[in-house]
């Protein structure tokens, strides 16, 4: 396996700050190795070697638990975007991402009644490195890049919830908040020599936004609590099991 630090291969849509921030945007990988096309290949070690043939949606079980929690009713485009290392928006990671339709609310009455569906965009990734030190450096870079990008874009979240993930991580962080017209949830956890993250944004509940009953099967606070304290630790355990099965 040839391991290089890879630029984000596409830019996010306007306002989709969370997805823009997850990949490495520098010309060097952590530890100073050059990522140019002419650089010498290196043999992968650590979880890089284990995950060299993995695809993101296989490793992350098609995001099914998250889809179930969100109440996803449809997946946009051609379905989930399944990427190995060197592919997708985040070239350093194996990723699974997609655009989802969320439950709808009926707004208005009589001939003016219509259904308003919610939507969500999610990218989840596993970022393997050759050592825990390199992973720790990349983890710090990702958080710093997220902070710098939000500042440069003028993205100021309100109703912020922040903290550490549940379970056992070497280091972890989550932040959620509102920035019209979306609610953002970003989570990062480092487990030894690999990183797990979720970057997602979704529209507010169309029922509550129109003085109707809630359409979503979750509240903003409950979603953050579940992702941080149940889903991320669950996925971490499943990935550790997959790693162990291949060693």
From TrEMBL:
Q: Which organism is it from?
A: Glycomyces luteolus
> Which key words tag this protein in UniProt?
Signal
Which region is the signal sequence? 1-27
The identity of this protein, by name, is: Lipoprotein
Q: Does the keyword Signal apply?
A: yes
Upper taxonomic lineage: Bacteria, Bacillati, Actinomycetota, Actinomycetes, Glycomycetales
